[in-house]
Write a structure and sequence with these properties.
This protein has helices at about 140-145, 185-195, 235-240, 250-260, 295-305, 310-315, and strands spanning about 25-30, 40, 55-60, 60, 65-70, 75-85, 90-95, 105-110, 115-120, 130-135, 170-175, 200-205, 225-230, 245-250, 265-270, 285-290, 330. With about 350 residues, it is of the alpha/beta class.
Length: about 350
Amino acid sequence: MRIEDIDYDLPAELIAQEPIEPRDAARLLVDTTSSTPLDRNVRDLPEFLRDGDVLVVNDTRVVPARLHLRRGSGGAVEVLLLEALDEGQRCWDALVRPARKLRSGEHLVDASGEAVLTVGERGEKGDTLIVTFVVEDPGAYLARVGEMPLPPYITRPLRDPERYQTVFSRDARSAAAPTAGLHFTPDLLARIERMGVPTVALELVVGLDTFQPVSTADPLEHVIHTERYRVSDATMNAVRDARRVVAVGTTATRALETAAHTGRLSGRSDLFITPGHDFRTVDVMMTNFHMPRTTLLLMIESFVGTRWRDLYRHAIAERYRMLSFGDSSLLTCTTSVRSRHAI
């Protein structure tokens, strides 16, 4: 493949800067696998669900992971916590800027002069640092001081931090939201449940590498990041028994496919979903529109083939709102013999 194969022109004015209200008022581009997709809203999702479906969501919660600190010498430092390395969430892999002059063992302090973090060694990839909290209760400190780690293409401040959380989020572990899940409301979930379509949950801890552009000329040579995942026995049993599996988001898809391909219900996923991937669990994927030249767009091509270009052209022509706070789509897997029923 070439990097151009997962590229497209994204008009800057279509990048959504704030979430729409109510959540399920977002538009939904429904891929019918015919020449013309349907233009609907997320609130219409039950219209496209059927008896025997199961809806799978990622219930991870976003950590308010951005901190503005200073060195002892007074220089400003921005810390973006990427992943906790221990259960107590004291030790983190972090993106620190600027990092070049920081020394191992150095303390970073907040505006009051209180020491917050100790700088450690570089992370496994060499582009991050290991930092350790020295405050007594890291969770409480982050809840009080931390900022939501919005993607860099969102430049407006977020008025309500809960709008970067799903309504079904649980444990705060992720550095980014599973954005397809942001469109659900309690009422929409209740309507789906009343249809007889169960909603089951899994956890995939979303890292910022998910959204980073592919940097290799051949995207298949890109080194994929790893993410922690956990799929319960109950969720996997529901998936096995379902007539169709509807995964909410690329993160839920990655966790399910990892479990199916490895036989392990928890661990770290290094699954790189590229064209030719054998989808063993997911029949339908609800997902937002993704940045050009990313592994997520590569996953979409794996799922629907090169037809993604027609879908994205339609979305742009119809002025859909793009990326994390944007609109969504409902896609049918057409690249696997397992896909049993189109939308």
